Amino acid sequence: MGKEKILVIGACGQIGVELTLELRRLYGGSSVVAADLREENNLLKGTGPYVSLDVMNKEMLHVQVIRQNITQIYLLAAMLSATAEKNPSLAWHLNMQSLLNVLDIAKEEKLTKVYWPSSIAVFGPTSPKQNCPQQTIIEPVTVYGISKYAGEFWCNYFFQRFHVDVRSIRYPGLISYKSEPGGGTTDYAVEIFHAAIEQKKYISFLKADTYLPMMYMPDAIRATIELMEADASKITVRTSYNIAAMSFSPKEITNAIRQYIPEFETSYLPDYRQAIADSWPQSIDDIVAKKDWNWKPEFDLQKMTRDMLMNLQPNLIGS
């Protein structure tokens, strides 16, 4: 690895915290600058430099990139699906303008690489429900999905027209014990673990049999870094890669948790997030990511459930 200097924008979010820590482990603490509008996350404190940064202020962002000699940017700041539906115009503005600011600066300063996440939210009700392919009908019905799909084409445009090496993954629902979820439709899969341990019961905002593509955070972090470290000649997708690990329903994850907490009960009270979930595929085909950069998940539902519970309540599971 050459002497890269990486800026992680949105470093205190659900993905940002763990991605920043892993990048610092690989590249060295001082080589990875964490940036966010929020207070520095406790897990990041003392591991490397931190700056307070508003990605919507392009001049400030540009100054930081020059001042810190940044060579790569990971842009993780975004308003997620469920939150975005409450304020569509703000979500569109934040999700689009932040990306355009970063891409413009990347072009001007000739950054080596940019990472920007997309999401399974780009898919809509007309996309195939099972094994949704890399290239398919994409007609998103949420503002988050619309902004992510537009963003994919901006990434492709800046690569084709200005040779900005920008790379992207369409994340499924992400599950982690380290950081709080950020207002997405798949957040129940994180909340349910905390509820199981603390209350022994959970009220799901999705129906029992709602299947969604999911991934355990260690897999998502590894996928991101593997994609970013892949040789540019191997990258055939400049919009965003499908990746997959597992698909399950609230009922299935409840049963997986009950293997360790037998008295745990889930009840169901679907809300506006059900319609969002229903518009997405139930499983994803990631053959292109496997072929291009050897993507392979490590965690299935059972392995993830065990690891989550072991970390959230270490005395629950005998080693």
The biggest sheet amounts to:
6 strands, parallel
Shape: globular
Strand order of the largest sheet: 3-2-1-4-5-7
Mean pLDDT, all residues: 95
Instruction: Supply the CATH superfamily name of the largest domain.
Output: NAD(P)-binding Rossmann-like Domain
Number of helices: 11
Low-confidence stretches: none
For the record, the CATH class of the largest domain is: Alpha Beta
What order do the SSEs take from the amino end to the carboxyl end, as H and E? EHEEHEHHEEHEEEHEEHEEHEHHH
Distance N to C terminus: 36 Å
The fraction of residues in strands falls at: 5-15%
Number of strands: 14
* Helix-strand category: alpha/beta
Corresponding CATH architecture of the largest domain: 3-Layer(aba) Sandwich
Overall radius of gyration: 19 Å
